[in-house]
Amino acid sequence: MQEDYAELKETSFCRSMPAEIIAKLAEIAVRTTLAAGKMLFDEGDRHEQVYLVLKGRIVLDVFIRGRDRVELVTVGDGEILGWSPLISNQPMTVRARAVTDCSLLVFSAQELLKTCEQDYRFGYYFMKQLTISFTKRLNATRLQMLDVFADIDGQRKMANMSSTGQTPQAGTADDD
Length: 176
Description:
By secondary structure, the chain is α+β, with helices and mostly antiparallel strands. It has five helices and eight strands.
C-alpha cells in the first residue's frame, strides 16, 4: 500500500488531492499489469472495475459500421479509465487495448461508490477529479470525431466526383 500511495500522489489524477484521500484510494487499490496488445475491456461488456494508469498507454476505440474500429483517444500515465460502472450498470461504450506494457491500479467500482457514500470528503475530491477527467476526455473525443467525420465527408466527395467523372481542381475547397 505504501508503494501505491507514493505512486498515486504523483499522478495527475491525484496530485491536487489531500493526503488522506490518496491514502484511502491506495487502501482499496489492487496493482496489476497488462501486456501490450491485450484488451482491458471490450465495447458492450459489463464491467465492475475502474483503472488508473500508472505507466503505459491504452487506446480507447469504438466500432463504426463501414469504418471498422476508430481510435478516440489514448490514455496514459496518471489517467483514469473504465468509469462507466461508477455512473450506471450500462455496458462499456468503448474498447480499451494496451498499446504498451502497462502498470495499473484497479479499483472496484462498488468499493469506490461505497467509500464516496460513507466519506463525503473523499466523495467530493474523487468526483471532482473524475469530472475533470470527463471534461478532458470529452474534449479529446470531440476533436477526434471531428477528424473522423471530416475524413468520411472527404471520402464521400471524392466518391461522388469519381462517379460523375469529375476531378478535384487545384486551389479549390476540395483540396483537403
